[in-house]
Amino acid sequence: MMMIAMREDATPAQIEEVVARLAAVGAEAHLHMQGSVATIAVEGDREAVAGLPIEVYPGVDRVVTLLRPYKLVSREFRARDTVIRMGHLHIGGGHFGLIAGPCSVETREQTLSAARFVKASGATGLRGGAFKPRTSPYAFQGLGEEALQILAEAREETGLPVVTELMDVRHLDLVLKYADVIQIGARNMQNFHLLAAVGQVDRPVLLKRGLCATLEELLMAAEYIVREGNSQVMVCERGIRTFETATRNTLDISAVPIIKHRSHLPVVVDPSHASGKVELIEPLSLAAIAAGADGLIIEAHPAPETALCDGAQSLSPVAFARTASRIAEMVAWMGKTLG
Ligand code: PEP
Ligand code: MN
């Protein structure tokens, strides 16, 4: 497939002209707008298209032939790192994000307390589930809108942008009302209608890798979102299913440099769901940063032993403070900035 990247200052008339010239030789041209920047994907008779001097058409920035199945998210299409704007902070392109907080919002006190202690230890984002994808229908399912209101209050007080999961297209407007970043969970990585829906809104997305998804499938899922116009996507390695039983999942550390090589999207690592064990959070976090990760998402709880969900993998305030300071050192060592 061939992609034509138009210049940022290309006029609508110039864009139409390129599309018309392609159509004239029988090629199919699909126009995608990312903000004000137009990209034209060209399908059809390569020979006919090859004869056109597309590079010199007014408004054309460059023409790229893409070999990989994902296009817009590929490094060959866009060499420059995508930088996510998360509130007043950034993730990607040398900016490191440390997102932390409870697995689920349980009470106002629990979440406000978590927000305060993670902020005090240097976190740049607050996580907390309002809609929880639980294996058992009898397990705590999340507080829904009440949880979103609590998260908004925690943001108000601490200034931390809020990351929370969207499980169902029907809750999109509700989540948009409160969240700074929409999380798409591992179990929904290939819920294509959900991906397309978040692709149509103007809000960063944290897309988690499916339990058994290949990196190509993960990047294809990200492509679904970006193709709809939302280029603010970061992907998250959160461990995959393997034969190993010592950990909840197996952190695929090589996913980090591989994705960074193949895609311009920021990569966030979730050592909590990857390991399921508090004692592994710090070593896996440091390894993730060394491997080139742009951020971490870590579960932390004011009293992990009482947590309604994922207590065994949630750091206490003391443990989080220690781990966060090692993380800060490692981030600096890698030449990146926290926030
Ligand atoms: C979570 O982040 O709370 C979560 C459910 O993660 P995952 O979708 O990766 O299992
Ligand atoms: Mn969890």
Key attributes of the depicted protein:
339 residues; alpha/beta; Alpha-Beta Plaits; TIM Barrel; 8-stranded parallel beta barrel; 4-stranded antiparallel sheet; 11 helices; 15 strands; elongated; binds phosphoenolpyruvate; binds manganese (II) ion
Task: Sum this structure up briefly.
The chain is of the alpha/beta class and 339 residues long. Helix content is 35%, strand content 20%. β11, α7 and β12 form a beta-alpha-beta unit.
Structural write-up:
The protein is α/β, with parallel strands linked by helices. The protein folds into two domains: 64 residues, Peptidase S8 propeptide/proteinase inhibitor I9 (Alpha-Beta Plaits), CATH 3.30.70; 255 residues, Aldolase class I (TIM Barrel). The protein has eleven helices and 15 strands. The chain has an eight-stranded parallel barrel, surrounded by seven helices. The protein has a four-stranded antiparallel beta sheet with strand order 2-3-1-4, with helices on one face. Strand 12, helix 8 and strand 13 form a beta-alpha-beta unit. Helix 6 packs across helix 7. The mean pLDDT is 95. The structure holds phosphoenolpyruvate and manganese (II) ion. Manganese (II) ion (MN) binds next to loops.
